[in-house]
Amino acid sequence: MKKKIISALLVAAMAVSMLAGCGNKSESAKSSDGTVTLKVFSNLPDRKNGQGLVEQMIIDEYMKENSNVKIEVEALDEEAYKTKFKAYSMEGMPDVVSIWGQPSFLDEVVEAGVLAELDQADYTDYKFIEGSLNGFTYDDKLYGLPRNTDVACIYYNEKLFQDNGWEIPKTYDELLALADKINAAGITPMAMDGGDGWPMAVYLSDVLFKLTGEDYSDVVSNAISTGDFSDANLKKATELLKAAADAKLFQNGYDSQDYGTAMNLFTNGQAAMFYMGSWESSMALNEDIPEEIRTNIRVFTMPVVDGGKAAATDIAAWNGGGYAVSANSEVKEEAIKFLNYMYQPDKLSKYGWENGVGMSAQDQSEYMTGDETKLQMQIVDAVNNATSVSGTPVNDCGPSAFKTSIESEIQSVSNGSKSVDDFLSAIGTSCK
Amino acid sequence: MESVGKRKHIFSKPLLWVVLSIVAIIQIFPLVWLVDFSLASSNEMFTSGLLIIPEKIQWGNYAKAFVDGHFLLYLKNSILINGLAVLVVILVSIMAGFACRRMKWKLSGFVKTLLLLGMMIPIHATLLPNYKIYNMLGLTDTIWALLIPYVAFSLPQGLFLMTSFMESIPVELEEAAVMDGCGIYRIIFQIITPMLKSSIATVAIMTFLNNWNEFMMASTYLSSPKWKTLPFSVLEFTGQYSSNYAVQFAVMALTAAPAVIVYIILNKHITKGVAMGAVKG
Lengths: 432, 281
Fold this sequence. Notes:
The structure holds two protein chains of two kinds.
Chain A: H1 2-25, E1 36-42, H2 50-65, E2 69-75, H3 78-90, E3 96-100, H4 103-111, E4 137-138, E5 141-142, E6 145-146, E7 148-157, H5 158-164, H6 172-184, E8 188-191, H7 198-212, H8 216-226, H9 232-246, H10 259-267, E9 271-277, H11 291-294, E10 297-300, E11 314-315, E12 317-318, E13 321-325, H12 332-342, H13 348-354, E14 359-360, H14 374-384, E15 388-389, H15 400-414, H16 420-429
Parallel strand pairs in A: 1-2, 1-3, 8-9, 11-15
Antiparallel strand pairs in A: 3-13, 4-5, 6-13, 7-9, 7-10, 7-12, 7-14
Chain B: H1 2-38, H2 60-67, H3 71-101, H4 108-117, H5 123-137, H6 144-166, H7 171-179, H8 184-195, H9 197-212, H10 216-221, H11 231-235, H12 245-279
């Protein structure tokens, strides 16, 4: 009898706690007095610096202008963000979310039907750079808006170059020859974040684009849809990446060193070049970097490859991160209103430029203050003078299994522990 | 014979000291390193040396960790959630251990095996299904969302240690207690529990350390800052591409401190607990 009473009590306690939990849940996003709560799920956990600061500034401004709207931000870093995104996509996606305009991310998400379709006609006045919406379009429908334009850059230390009489390479062969000269001077030629996988995949895409020119996206999407990476250009690009590693272009142990280590080699003068995206142009403003180095950072893009179809002005650039609205949001209209507010040209674009977080996906020319660093101007010029841009790097063009595979195999192929053919067939298998 | 024994004694003591010192240095070095780096600036971080001598000691890192990292709120949550988890795990594992080991009922062996099977389930496999269940029950973003899995994942280990330790307590004690008219709950809490001290310490410390740094479940099941735990504090300084490492080191030093303190307090009992539990099957 006693036992039964206790178990009944336990059941009752559990039921009560569950009911209490449900009570919290039923709190509606749109309450009776007209206040709307927007949930923003962001991949920028640092709200006090860089892109996260820009995002927070706009959110604060929006709440000030619209007193009936309350915005709650939840921010996680990329890995945790993607895990939680999966959890959310089963049910209860927040209203405005960060997304990546790349097939490896977007395809699965759109097919699961979690993102709301946006009206393309709304954005004709938003000055989006030609082609920047492509990555966010699926079956001719627009599902998100791009935040940045990213350019693959080779940063170099101008003073080191001048002091030693080195010249900016015009061809890939010259780049490899330069590696010998710089090594002879006892300096690391190029700092490479090989530990993470993706920077080398970007390097591979960069070289591939120089080889294929405008056929780049066809070659890549063909290979990914058939799982056959034996295309001559893909093979050549991989061999060129390996040639760079063989010529000791990268630092010792590049294949296990991470972002910070590679960047630090460059920012304290131990390396003459640094391969990274345009977002690091803020190095020129970073007071943690010794002045004689930060004022001498300049940039060039991947030199042309012999026999390749692309000219020097065809550059590897893409629009990676961005925002979208959840399809099942209870306050979808408000969410889209907020999204559009963020993308008014004088918000994300302007604030981003002023805070040196890199180039937005919109035309920023009217926000130039004249105080830009030489480095910033060089990147802007590179984009403005570009005759064509590559689009998404190879690693982000396929399903997520492919991304994982290429980013983990690329170190083995570059350091010679795996042959080029084995590498190409291994990444091909992961597409199937 | 005596002289041989003595010589052995003379040699073994310094050797013991040397080996122990080496082990101690290896164990303590990461903590020294952590504190050292937390007082440097982000820029000094990438040296080839093992330790860095900061040009200026950056106490500001700690100030930032406290204010921008919401340290106190997260500390409160961490202590509350971990404390409750430890209490529940100890209570349930003692009671379940007693039920499975000492009480005679048909399925006692089966139930024990079933509970211990929990040790084999990886957290990753349960992450998304659990999220779905919590969401249906409306438990996400509440304290239960962390308390339930923390208890569930620590319970098998706790139960395992408790049952094997309980073996060493003579049944005659309980028989004597029953003769004197003692009820079952009194047996557990007044006779058995005081004798389990060292295994309670072991279970407490294992549960506490396992859950103190847990981030994956916390990041999946929580969304508002209300119940976020200390590992989230590190995240507040993670940038899109590069992070404020110096402040992250400060946060980690602050996060490690309570765990180290708990370990030192309970340390006396833990070795005894594990060793005694290990021999009995």
